[in-house]
Amino acid sequence: MPNTLATVRAAVLRSLDRSGVTATESGDIDRWINQAIREDICQDHNWAFMETQTDVATVLNQESYAFPVAATFKDCQAIFFRRVSTEDWMRLQESHYDFLQDQFTAQVKGVPSVWARRGENYVLRAIPDASTYSMRVLSWNYPVELVADADTNTLLTNYSALVEAAVIRRGLLHYGEDARLQVWEQLYQQARMRSLRADRARLGASDLWLNISFDAGKKSAGLQRGGRVSRPAAYSWIA
Q1: pLDDT per residue over 146-162, tens digit each?
Q2: pTM here?
Q3: Residue ranges covered by each domain of the chain
């Protein structure tokens, strides 16, 4: 059975030794859960489940576009472009906005080749000269806020101990229980490191291939010193 907002809230209340809480206190727990997920857990690490892909159509003579899902948007990983659906996606070069201003003008229309961040939007150059082009935006987005008791997300499902520890820290700080706070701070850091290792393993390649060089197993020629060949400086990894 997956963890939900209700089950995590109940676990936190038990750990905080709070029973028969008011609706206000229960609402505080829910707020801490969402704050802990976004500010403590997802702010310093781009988790695998945060990766989002959004396809966007260009607009004729429009240079500026909003990043997808503004309410949960965290950061942009890359933007790809193609003119027609039969073409392969081409990665657009990211540059600084000042570079776009120096190298292009608002009069330059054509096929975009570079983009830059501008506030909450991204700007294309050249400015699209058609509405038939497509962009594929790869971004990282924060989890949607948990509201209903049955709401859940990947963190609650796969890393519930991390979420609970993060929320309990906030609760103990709120209730002024400094002695217990130190213990739960350590538990949170341990759970965080375990979870990060697991997530980074998911992001890594499952199989690593090593191509053997044609020179493998051959000794290096060495350096000529006084008519003699010096001892080879190094050997390849195969004898």
Answers
A1: 999 999 999 999 999 99
A2: 0.79
A3: 5-42+143-203, 50-141
